Amino acid sequence: MSKCLYFIFLLAILPLNLRSQDGYDLWLQYYPIEEATLRENYSTQIQGLITYGSGATLDAAVSELEKAYAGFFDASIPTAISIKENSLVLGTRDNLPAYVLPSLEGEFTKINSEGYIIKKIRIGNTPATVITAETEAGLLYGTFRFIKEMQLRNAIDKISITDSPKIQIRVLNHWDNLDRTVERGYAGFSIWDWHHLPELIKPEYIDYARANASIGINGTVLTNVNASSVVLTSAYIEKVKALADVFRSYGIKVYLTARFSSPMESGDLETADPFDPEVKQWWKDKADEIYAEIPDFGGFLVKANSEGQPGPNNYGRSHVDGANMLAEAVAPHNGIVMWRAFVYSEHDPDDRAKQAYSEFVPFDGQFHDNVLVQVKNGPIDFQPREPFHPMFGAMPDTPLMMEFQITQEYLGFSSHLVYLPKMFEEVLDEDTYVQGEGSTVAKVIDGTLSNKKLTGIAGVANIGTAKNWTGHPFGQANWYGFGRLAWDPYIDSEEIAEDWLKMTFSKDKDFVDEVSEMMLDSREAVVNYMTPLGLHHIMDTGHHYGPGPWVGNLDRPEWNPVYYHRADSLGVGFDRTTTGSNALAQYAEPLREKYNSIETTPEQYLLWFHHVPWDYEMKNGKTLWHNMAAKYQQGVEEVEDMVKTWNEMEEYVDEERFATTQMLLQIQLKEAKWWRDAVLLYFKQFSEMELPEFVPTPEHDLEYYQSLEFPYAPGISPSWH
Amino acid sequence: MSKCLYFIFLLAILPLNLRSQDGYDLWLQYYPIEEATLRENYSTQIQGLITYGSGATLDAAVSELEKAYAGFFDASIPTAISIKENSLVLGTRDNLPAYVLPSLEGEFTKINSEGYIIKKIRIGNTPATVITAETEAGLLYGTFRFIKEMQLRNAIDKISITDSPKIQIRVLNHWDNLDRTVERGYAGFSIWDWHHLPELIKPEYIDYARANASIGINGTVLTNVNASSVVLTSAYIEKVKALADVFRSYGIKVYLTARFSSPMESGDLETADPFDPEVKQWWKDKADEIYAEIPDFGGFLVKANSEGQPGPNNYGRSHVDGANMLAEAVAPHNGIVMWRAFVYSEHDPDDRAKQAYSEFVPFDGQFHDNVLVQVKNGPIDFQPREPFHPMFGAMPDTPLMMEFQITQEYLGFSSHLVYLPKMFEEVLDEDTYVQGEGSTVAKVIDGTLSNKKLTGIAGVANIGTAKNWTGHPFGQANWYGFGRLAWDPYIDSEEIAEDWLKMTFSKDKDFVDEVSEMMLDSREAVVNYMTPLGLHHIMDTGHHYGPGPWVGNLDRPEWNPVYYHRADSLGVGFDRTTTGSNALAQYAEPLREKYNSIETTPEQYLLWFHHVPWDYEMKNGKTLWHNMAAKYQQGVEEVEDMVKTWNEMEEYVDEERFATTQMLLQIQLKEAKWWRDAVLLYFKQFSEMELPEFVPTPEHDLEYYQSLEFPYAPGISPSWH
Question: Which Pfam family, just one, is annotated for this protein (chains A, B) (predicted)?
Answer without folding.
Answer: Glyco_hydro_67N
